[in-house]
Design brief:
The two termini are 16 Å apart. By secondary structure, this protein is of the alpha/beta class. The protein has 13 helices and 5 strands. A 5-stranded parallel β-sheet has the order 3-2-1-4-5, sandwiched between helices. Helices cover 53% and strands 9% of the residues. It has 2 domains: 60 residues, no CATH class; 195 residues, 3-Layer(aba) Sandwich (Rossmann fold), CATH 3.40.50. Helix 1 packs antiparallel against helix 2 and helix 4 runs parallel beside helix 8. Strand 4, helix 12 and strand 5 form a beta-alpha-beta unit.
Length: 278
């Protein structure tokens, strides 16, 4: 997915949101905005929105000295999601179609996105999404992909969200499909890392690998050999969230996307409405 002019406006929104999370000092907020504004004329829209946004987080980290300004928020969302996990498991266990319910649970987890500052209530939104129909639904095709001997690469997205991903991974594993789950190699926004795989219980379920970088989504020039091989060797790939959609939707491969549209650009690309699960 290529960036649009609207993404430039979003850069400044992301900058201010991240700076405010990192510090209460308005002088730092202004400095961050000024530095991002300074680089905007040199940015090309011939790249993904994810790549376009990457400098925002480096600039804020440099100004504040905080390489992981979202650490507290990540811990909080993991805690809230883990508290909801027993209820979510019960809902899936009681569902007539357990795979469908597990996909809904994983999609519901995608409401947790701190980069663009959109409002969400994990408990309320989770329960609502569990009963919503998907705007774009490829579940039956996805179901046919799952069977013994098949390999699935699961591209994780955010902390907190990864807790709900464990439910879907359990259902996929139950089909005999091998699952490899990918997390970031370092902090970027509230994306899941190896620490979140540990806290969420994902590490006990299946093999975890790192992408090789702390880029938003997947930066194909920065991925590790291990990740590149896992992507190439997977029979099917499940990519969660905006960043992975933006950086993987034009890639060759048997790729399924699972996300909520949280901006007009992604919604338009999907052909869905804003704030719709897909």
């Amino acid at each position: 997915m290529k960036a649009k002019s609207d993404c430039i406006v979003c850069l400044l929104k992301q900058t201010l949101n991240t700076a405010r999370i990192a510090t209460q000092d308005p002088r730092i907020h202004r400095k961050a905005l000024d530095r991002v504004a300074k680089i905007i004329p040199g940015l090309s829209l011939d790249q993904t929105p994810a790549a376009l946004s990457q400098p925002v987080y480096s600039i804020v980290a440099g100004l504040t000295g905080l390489p992981d300004p979202f650490k507290k928020q990540k811990d909080d969302t993991n805690r809230i999601a883990l508290a909801l996990l027993p209820e979510a498991r019960t809902m899936v266990a009681r569902a007539k179609d357990k795979l469908d319910a597990a996909v809904h649970a994983a999609a519901a987890g995608n409401i947790i996105d701190l980069g663009i500052g959109h409002k969400f209530d994990i408990e309320k939104d989770f329960r609502e999404i569990m009963t919503q129909a998907f705007a774009i639904n490829a579940l039956e095709d996805f179901r046919k992909e799952l069977r013994a001997g098949r390999k699935l690469l699961y591209l994780g997205d955010n902390a907190g969200e990864i807790v709900f991903d464990t439910i879907l991974v359990e259902q996929i594993l139950a089909t005999g499909t091998e699952v490899v789950f990918a997390v970031k190699s370092g902090p970027i926004i509230n994306d899941a890392t190896m620490a979140d795989a540990e806290v969420s219980g994902m590490k006990k379920l299946t093999r975890i690998i790192e992408t090789g970088s702390n880029d938003i989504g997947i930066h194909w020039d920065h991925v590790s050999d291990e990740f590149r091989a896992a992507f190439k060797n997977a029979d099917v790939i499940l990519a969660k969230g905006h960043g992975n959609f933006e950086t993987c939707n034009d890639r060759p491969g048997n790729i399924y996307m699972l996300l909520k549209a949280k901006c007009d650009m992604v919604a338009n690309e999907l052909g869905s409405s804003l704030e719709t699960s897909c």
